[in-house]
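Whiteboard transcription, Tuesday session. T.W. wrote the structure tokens on the left side:
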């Protein structure tokens, strides 16, 4: 049932097929999402209430779209102490990591004698953080999206999350909200949540950006509204490569191979190894691991590892392994080796790289500190993990001293006139010096 592939036996077409993902074809959702988006734009809160009933089976009113502070406090007060402890532990690590990412608020460098250039960093005004709920509860996504926003000092952190059938937000998400603090929560999911963030409603504030993973409905709405709101890092179905050299434990590789595969049948997961013995040990271990999992997650992982988007791939050498990993550009890359750092230099394209047997993917997903909202579908070739930089904008700053001006102006004037911009040229010509001299002389 598990795909066991040998690179040397594959045709060029079969090798290329390994790079494909189960990324949803958003074309199938765009038309329907467009109608939802239009309704939210025209009807505001009324559309959100109607779609909550239609899609989430939640009977809420416009007055109930925003979660109250009392509900957040009550959830935290009633929460299991172990849940609070784990969320707090995760939040502390995520906060520490993202604080270390923060750039200087203002910096200047002398790029030439008397010529200074630099940047100022400013937090965004209003950012929407989407926290999905379709396949379970994800307080970890809440932490990964809101904590860096708070570190960056975003003025308003707006969380959009689907209501449950009881018309309420997920309990653990509310507990996480109390731990983070300073966050607004609104009950809206899917395409309607993205539309509410893009246009604003009577209750939901208009956002400058929306971050976080979501369903194909969320992806379709982001495609439709990219001209209205910054849609940030692309985050689709989960994917991972477990790379194991010949020093790795096959049973451990099998255990970690199942992690991202259990997200759903649209996930992608490969064990890539230079050792047939490691590959066979991993395959032999899977039945024992499935015995310790729920039926639903077993079903998902079997579908992934036996389907077109997963399996065990045996490569002839390290160069081939590195080449495949870089071409695939996985969301998660875990390196199992006695010396994992020896492989790190060869990796160019991966959302995250987790080194060694004591750094499995779940640590990165929940508590390690770096952001777990990662580029998928090969986007790691051009995109980066969510970070504090996604919540900041920069302004360039320049200052030229009187002594450095003449040389700068001479070159600027030449280039301006070469490109045909007479006003540009005049602004750095002798005309400027004449006006400035007149001002200095009081004339």
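and on the right, the sequence the group agreed on:
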């Amino acid at each position: 049932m598990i795909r066991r592939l040998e690179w040397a036996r594959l045709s060029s077409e079969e090798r290329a097929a390994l790079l494909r993902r189960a990324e949803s074809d958003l074309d199938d959702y765009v038309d329907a999402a467009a109608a939802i988006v239009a309704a939210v734009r025209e009807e505001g809160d009324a559309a959100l209430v109607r779609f909550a009933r239609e899609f989430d089976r939640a009977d809420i009113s416009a007055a109930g779209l925003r979660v109250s502070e009392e509900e957040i406090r009550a959830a935290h007060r009633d929460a299991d102490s172990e849940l609070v402890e784990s969320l707090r532990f995760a939040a502390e690590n995520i906060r520490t990591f993202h604080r270390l990412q923060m750039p200087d608020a203002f910096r200047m460098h002398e790029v030439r004698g008397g010529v200074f250039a630099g940047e100022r960093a400013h937090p965004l005004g209003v950012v929407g953080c989407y926290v999905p709920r379709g396949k379970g509860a994800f307080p970890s996504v809440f932490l990964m999206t809101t904590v860096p926003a708070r570190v960056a000092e975003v003025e308003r952190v707006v969380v959009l999350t689907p209501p449950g059938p009881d018309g309420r937000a997920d309990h653990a998400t509310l507990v996480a909200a109390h731990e983070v603090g300073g966050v607004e929560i609104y009950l809206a999911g899917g395409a309607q949540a993205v539309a509410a963030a893009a246009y604003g409603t009577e209750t939901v504030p208009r956002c400058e950006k929306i971050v976080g993973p979501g369903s194909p409905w969320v992806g379709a709405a982001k495609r439709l509204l990219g001209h209205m709101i910054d849609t940030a890092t692309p985050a689709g179905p989960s994917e991972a490569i477990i790379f194991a050299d010949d020093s790795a434990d096959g049973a451990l590789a099998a255990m970690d191979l199942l992690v991202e595969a259990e997200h759903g049948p649209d996930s992608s997961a490969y064990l890539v190894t230079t050792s047939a013995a490691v590959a066979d040990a991993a395959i032999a271990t899977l039945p024992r691991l499935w015995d310790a999992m729920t039926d639903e997650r077993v079903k998902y992982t079997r579908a992934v590892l036996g389907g077109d988007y997963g399996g065990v791939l045996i490569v002839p050498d390290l160069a081939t392994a590195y080449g495949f990993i870089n071409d695939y550009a996985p969301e998660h890359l875990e390196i199992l080796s006695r010396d994992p750092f020896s492989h790190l230099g060869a990796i160019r394209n991966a959302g995250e790289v987790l080194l060694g047997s004591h750094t499995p993917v779940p640590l990165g997903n929940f508590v390690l500190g770096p952001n777990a909202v990662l580029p998928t579908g090969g986007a790691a070739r051009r995109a980066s993990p969510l970070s504090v930089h996604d919540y900041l904008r920069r302004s360039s700053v320049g200052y030229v001293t009187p002594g450095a001006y003449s040389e700068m102006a001479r070159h600027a004037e030449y280039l301006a006139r070469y490109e045909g911009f007479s006003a540009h040229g005049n602004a750095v010509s002798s005309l400027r010096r004449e006006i400035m001299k007149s001002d200095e002389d009081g004339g």
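Someone added at the bottom: The mean pLDDT is 95.
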